[in-house]
C-alpha cells in the first residue's frame, strides 16, 4: 500500500495520509485497524521530549531562512523563479502568526548548508538530523517523514538494498544525508549532483542507471520527464525526518520557531497539504466493473451471460482477497512486538493482541474487563487517567503517555502507551491503543544521564585546569617583570638608598603571589605538592586576609602566635588546606550567633603518654612538636558525632562536604603529625594540630640579591610571546655578560636560529602561539643537535622535565624567576 506521511508541527503526533485503499464496504474493520497500526508505528518512533524554553530573549524583527530550492512538493521554483510549496506556505503562515518578517532563500542543498554554517541565515529548513549535524545545529521536532529508496533501471535485476549497489555507479545529491548511509554500506562509486532534478535528468539521458533520491521529489521529476515506468525502487534505505534547525546553542531562537509553528492550527496545516498534495481519490473496483459491464451491455446485449460469469468470478476473487487480508491482519497482530488493544467507552479492555501474554504474562481473556488504570503503577495512575479523559474530550487528539504497567507476577514494566479515539467509527466503536515495552530505553536514558553528569564534572575540572594554565602563563609573566625589575634596581642602587627596603617588599610580595599561582596549579592537578621547611606563623600571617573574608560576619578571628617558633617540614599547600578547613568548620559551628575563633601557635615537648591520647598515634615518636590550635565558641559536639568526625563523607550539615576532615587526617598522616580534639556540646570545640619541629637552626634572614662574581659570555636567544618578558629578560642577560637576540614565537625563533650560527644558549618559553615550546625545541635540535636549551614555564620542573626526558633538554627555569636563579641555571649548563 503506497503511502506518503506528513507530520504537522502543531503536534508531535498529528499525522495525515494520502493513499489508495480497499473499498471500506468490503473490509472496514481490518482496514481501519491496519491504518492505525501503521500510523502508531511511526508515531511511537518519534521522540516525545520537548526542549526547555530559553530565557526571555527579545524577539527579532526579521528571521532569515534557507532551504533546498528543488524539493517538490515541499519547495520548488515557479515559472517566475519564486519559491512555492508546502514549506513556503507554512513559513508564510508562521510570519502572520508571529508578526516577524521571514526572508526565505532557496538554493542548492550543499550551498545552503555552507551558507548556514557561515552565519548568513538564522534557520535552515528541509534538513534531516544525523550525528554530524547534531554537533552544529539544534533541531525542531520532525514535521514530515520522507522515505529514501534506491532507484534502478528496469533492465537491472538483483538490487534490493544498498549492499547490492556495490560496484555500481550511484548518483546522489551533494551534501545529502544519504551519502553517509551509502558509504557505511560500502558504496564508494558515488557521483554527486547539485539537485534531485539534475539526477533525474541524468537518468533520463542514460548517464546513470542507479540513483537515490527522496521519494516525493523523485516521483515528481520521474513523472514530469515521463520515465516513471523505466525505473524500479527498493525498500527505503531509511526514513528521513524533515526538521528545521538553528545554530548550536540558540535555544531562544529554536523555541521561537517551534512556538510559531505550534500556533498554526491543524485545519490550516491540512489546507496547505490539500493544496499541494491534492485530495485522495478512492475508486471502488466494483464501480469499475459496473462501468465496464455497462459498456459491454451497451455494446453487446448478447454478452449478458458472459458478464454474469465474469461477475461471479470477481466476487469469488474478492472473497478470497478478503480472507487473505483477514489472515494477514491476524498474523500482524500475532507477531507484533507491541500490544494492540481496543478499549471501550467505559475504559475496559475489549481486545488485546497475543503479545500481551509475551510481555506481561496475561492471557488474552484475563485482561478483559480490566482498565489501564487497574494495571498502572499507583504513582502513575493520575497521569494515565488525565490522558484518557483528555482523549475522550478531544477525539481528534492522539494521546501518548509513559507509565509502569503491572505484570501478572506483580512486577512492573515501563511502557509507552499511544492511543486514538475511534468511538465514532461504527466498525470499531472503541479506543485503539498500542503499548510498547520501553524498559531498555529507560535504562539507556538513565545511563545517559549518569554519563552526562560525569562528563559535566570532568568539564568543570578541565575548566579549572585551563584557568590554572592561564594563571601559570600570564600571571607569572607579570610577576617575573615585577621581580626582575626589582632585582635589577637593587643591583643598580647603593645599599644606603632609602628605596632598598621598598624594592625588597616588592620582591617579597611578588614571591607570595607566585606561591599563590603554584597553589592554584596544584589544586587543579597542574602542579605537584612540594615538602619544604616552613614557618607556621608566617603561613598564618600570609593567609590572614583570606581567613577573615571566609568566616561568618558574626565571628571574630584572633591570632596568638608564639615568638621564635621552630620550622616544620611540610607542604605549604596542604597546610593551607588544613587551616582553611578547620577555620571554616569553626565559623559554621558558631553560625549566626556572635563568637570567637582563636588561633594559637607554640612549641611543646610531647611524651609517649601525651601522644597516645591523639588521633594517628601509631607511627609518631616523642619529642618537640609545633602545635597549631584552632578553638571556637560554637555548638560543640557530642561523643557520637566525635566518634564519626573523621569518617569519609560524614557531615553534620544538610549537604555533604566530600572527604572534609578525613582529608585533614590523611594530610597529617603524611606529615607524621597528629591531632587532638577537645569538645563539649554547647561549649565549643578545639582542634590541636601537632607537627614534628625541625631541630636544625633556621637559616639567617636576609635578602639574596643574586649578586655573584660569575658572568658569562656569548649570545643567548630569548624566546617568549610576552614583550615585557623579552625586555626584562634581555636586561638580566646583559647584566650577566651575555648579548641577546629575541623572538616572539617558535616560528620566529627557528628562523633566527638558522640565520645566527653563533647562538650559545636558548631560553625557550613552553606556551606560545603558532609554534609552542615543545615543537620549537624539536626544530632547534633538528637544526643543531648539540644546542643547549633552557625551558621556561609557569608549570613545575617535574612536569616539564618528565615531558622532555631523554630528549636533550639542558635545563629548566620556572617563572617567575629572579636574576640569581637565571644566573645559576646558565652557570650550571655552562659548566657541563
Automatic annotation (TrEMBL):
Residues 325-395 form the PAS domain. Residues 399-450 form the PAC domain. InterPro entries: CheY-like_superfamily, HATPase_C_sf, HATPase_dom, His_kinase_dom, HisK_dim/P_dom, HisK_dim/P_sf, PAS, PAS-assoc_C. It catalyses: ATP + protein L-histidine = ADP + protein N-phospho-L-histidine. It is an enzyme of class 2 (transferase). One of its GO terms (molecular function) is phosphorelay sensor kinase activity. Residues 715-830 form the Response regulatory domain. Residues 470-695 form the Histidine kinase domain. PANTHER family: SENSOR HISTIDINE KINASE (PTHR43065), TWO-COMPONENT SENSOR PPRA (PTHR43065:SF42). This is histidine kinase.
Amino acid at each position: 500500500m503506497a503511502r506518503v506521511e506528513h507530520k504537522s508541527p502543531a503536534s508531535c503526533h498529528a499525522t495525515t495520509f494520502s493513499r489508495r485503499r480497499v473499498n471500506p464496504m468490503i473490509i472496514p474493520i481490518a482496514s481501519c485497524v491496519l491504518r492505525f497500526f501503521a500510523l502508531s508505528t511511526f508515531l511511537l518512533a518519534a521522540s516525545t521530549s520537548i526542549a526547555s524554553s530559553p530565557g526571555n530573549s527579545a524577539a527579532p524583527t526579521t528571521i532569515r531562512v534557507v532551504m533546498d530550492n528543488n524539493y517538490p512538493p515541499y519547495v520548488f521554483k515557479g515559472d517566475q523563479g519564486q519559491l512555492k510549496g508546502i514549506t513556503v506556505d507554512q513559513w508564510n503562515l508562521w510570519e502572520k502568526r508571529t508578526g516577524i518578517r521571514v526572508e526565505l532563500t532557496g538554493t542548492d542543498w550543499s550551498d545552503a548548508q555552507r551558507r548556514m554554517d557561515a552565519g548568513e541565515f538564522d534557520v535552515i529548513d528541509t534538513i534531516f538530523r544525523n550525528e554530524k549535524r547534531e554537533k552544529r545545529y539544534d533541531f525542531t521536532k520532525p514535521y514530515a517523514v520522507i522515505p529514501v529508496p534506491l532507484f534502478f533501471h528496469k533492465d537491472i535485476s538483483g538490487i534490493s538494498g544498498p549492499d547490492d549497489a556495490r560496484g555500481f555507479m550511484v548518483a546522489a545529491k551533494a551534501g545529502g544525508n544519504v551519502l553517509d548511509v551509502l558509504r557505511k554500506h560500502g558504496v564508494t562509486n558515488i557521483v554527486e549532483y547539485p539537485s534531485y532534478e539534475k539526477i533525474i535528468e541524468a537518468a533520463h539521458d542514460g548517464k546513470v542507471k542507479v540513483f537515490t533520491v527522496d521519494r516525493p521529489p523523485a516521483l515528481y521529476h520521474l513523472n514530469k520527464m515521463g520515465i516513471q515506468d523505466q525505473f524500479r525502487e527498493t525498500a527505503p534505505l531509511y526514513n528521513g525526518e524533515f526538521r528545521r534547525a538553528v545554530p548550536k546553542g540558540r535555544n531562544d531562537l529554536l523555541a521561537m520557531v517551534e512556538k510559531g509553528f505550534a500556533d498554526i492550527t491543524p485545519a490550516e496545516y491540512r489546507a496547505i497539504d490539500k493544496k499541494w498534495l491534492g485530495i485522495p481519490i478512492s475508486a471502488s473496483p466494483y464501480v469499475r466493473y459496473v462501468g465496464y459491464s455497462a459498456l459491454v451491455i451497451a455494446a453487446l446485449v448478447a454478452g449478458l451471460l458472459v458478464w454474469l460469469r465474469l461477475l461471479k468470478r470477481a466476487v469469488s476473487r474478492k472473497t478470497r482477497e478478503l480472507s487473505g487480508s483477514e489472515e494477514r491482519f491476524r498474523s500482524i497482530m500475532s507477531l507484533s512486538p507491541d500490544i494492540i488493544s481496543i478499549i471501550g467507552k467505559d475504559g475496559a479492555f475489549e481486545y488485546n493482541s497475543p503479545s500481551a501474554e509475551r510481555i506481561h504474562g496475561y492471557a488474552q481473556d484475563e485482561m478483559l474487563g480490566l482498565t489501564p488504570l487497574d494495571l498502572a503503577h499507583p504513582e502513575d495512575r493520575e497521569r494515565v487517567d488525565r490522558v484518557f479523559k483528555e482523549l475522550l474530550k478531544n477525539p481528534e487528539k492522539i494521546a501518548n503517555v509513559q507509565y509502569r504497567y503491572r505484570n501478572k507476577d506483580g512486577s512492573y514494566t515501563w511502557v509507552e502507551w499511544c492511543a486514538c479515539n475511534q468511538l465514532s467509527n461504527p466498525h470499531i466503536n472503541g479506543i485503539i491503543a498500542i503499548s510498547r515495552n520501553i524498559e531498555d530505553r529507560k535504562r539507556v536514558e538513565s545511563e545517559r544521564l549518569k554519563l552526562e553528569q560525569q562528563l559535566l564534572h570532568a568539564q568543570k575540572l578541565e575548566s579549572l585546569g585551563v584557568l590554572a594554565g592561564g594563571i601559570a602563563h600570564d600571571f607569572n609573566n607579570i610577576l617575573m617583570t615585577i621581580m626582575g625589575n626589582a632585582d635589577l634596581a637593587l643591583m643598580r642602587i647603593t645599599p644606603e638608598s632609602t628605596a632598598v627596603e621598598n624594592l625588597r617588599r616588592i620582591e617579597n610580595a611578588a614571591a607570595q603571589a607566585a606561591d599563590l599561582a603554584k597553589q592554584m596549579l596544584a589544586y587543579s592537578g597542574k602542579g605537584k605538592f612540594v615538602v619544604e621547611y616552613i614557618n607556621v606563623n608566617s603561613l598564618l600571617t600570609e593567609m590572614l586576609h583570606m581567613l577573615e573574608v571566609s568566616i561568618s560576619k558574626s565571628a571574630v578571628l584572633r591570632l596568638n602566635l608564639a615568638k621564635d617558633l621552630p620550622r616544620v617540614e611540610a607542604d605549604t599547600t596542604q597546610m593551607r588546606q588544613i587551616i582553611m578547613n578547620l577555620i571554616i568548620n569553626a565559623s559554621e559551628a558558631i553560625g549566626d550567633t556572635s563568637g570567637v575563633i582563636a588561633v594559637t601557635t607554640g612549641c611543646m615537648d610531647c611524651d609517649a603518654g601525651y601522644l597516645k591520647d591523639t588521633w594517628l598515634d601509631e607511627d609518631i615518636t616523642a619529642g618537640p612538636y609545633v602545635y597549631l590550635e584552632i578553638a571556637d565558641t560554637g555548638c560543640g559536639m557530642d561523643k557520637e558525632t566525635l566518634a564519626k568526625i573523621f569518617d569519609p563523607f560524614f557531615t553534620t550539615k544538610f549537604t555533604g562536604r566530600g572527604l572534609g576532615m578525613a582529608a585533614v587526617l590523611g594530610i597529617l598522616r603524611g606529615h607524621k603529625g597528629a591531632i587532638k580534639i577537645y569538645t563539649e556540646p554547647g561549649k565549643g570545640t578545639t582542634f590541636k594540630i601537632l607537627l614534628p619541629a625541625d631541630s636544625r637552626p633556621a637559616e639567617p634572614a636576609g635578602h639574596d640579591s643574586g649578586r655573584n662574581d660569575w658572568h658569562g659570555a656569548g649570545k643567548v636567544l630569548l624566546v617568549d610571546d610576552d614583550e615585557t618578558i623579552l625586555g626584562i629578560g634581555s636586561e638580566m642577560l646583559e647584566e650577566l655578560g651575555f648579548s641577546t637576540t629575541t623572538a616572539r614565537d617558535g616560528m620566529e625563533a627557528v628562523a633566527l636560529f638558522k640565520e645566527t650560527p653563533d647562538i650559545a644558549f636558548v631560553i625557550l618559553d613552553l606556551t606560545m602561539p603558532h609554534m609552542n615550546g615543545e615543537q620549537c625545541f624539536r626544530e632547534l635540535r633538528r637544526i643543531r643537535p648539540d644546542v643547549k636549551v633552557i625551558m621556561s614555564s609557569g608549570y613545575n620542573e617535574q612536569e616539564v622535565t618528565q615531558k622532555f626526558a631523554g630528549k636533550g633538554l639542558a635545563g629548566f627555569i620556572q617563572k617567575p624567576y629572579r636574576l640569581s636563579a637565571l644566573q645559576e641555571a646558565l652557570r650550571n649548563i655552562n659548566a657541563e
